Amino acid sequence: MKKFLTVVAGLIFLGLFVRGAASVQESKTGDRKLNSLLGKIDTRAEAEPDMFFQQLSQRHDIPEQEIRQAKERNGLGYGDIYMATALSKISKRPVGAVAEDFRNNPGRGWGVMALSLGIKPGSPDFKLMKANARDSLDRMKTVSKAKKRQHKE
Fold first, then answer.
1. Which of 1, 9, 55, 109 is 20 to 30 A from 63 in CA distance terms?
2. Nearest-CA neighbor of 66 among 86, 38, 94?
């Protein structure tokens, strides 16, 4: 009986571990640098979600509530909702539709999504999207540092 309980506990632990690892899925774009930026955006946005949504809304001229709803309805991480919003702006499709399309096609990464929306790797739109991701990350870092300085004073 003791062995049985040990095996059951081990299987439960393994199931929880696998489920947790799957939920923290890294954004895949086909571009190593952009993947890295999205991972860093994920980390920063997790700590400051309101700042992230506000900044994303302003940069892409999409209502903040629309971005939040797309994230929640489709269970996306912050890096993924960043990509959905960026592709939404470039393709002129609603962010919710882009996020839903991504969710409904789990084998497709963001690179394939971008291609299906007419955005080719290396194109001016792709380069702009990558530059905007870098700028967004830099802005989040700057705001975080400013807030820390204010708290120290």
1. 109
2. 94
Q: How buried is 93 (Cβ within 10 angstroms: 0-12 exposed, 13-18 middle, 19+ buried)?
A: middle
pLDDT band at 43 (very low <50, low <70, confident <90, very high): very high
**pLDDT tens by residue, 107-148:** 889 989 999 999 988 899 989 989 999 999 998 888 888 887
- Does the global pTM surpass 0.85? no
User: How far, rounded to the nearest angstrom, does the alpha carbon of residue 31 sit from its chain's CA centroid?
Assistant: 15
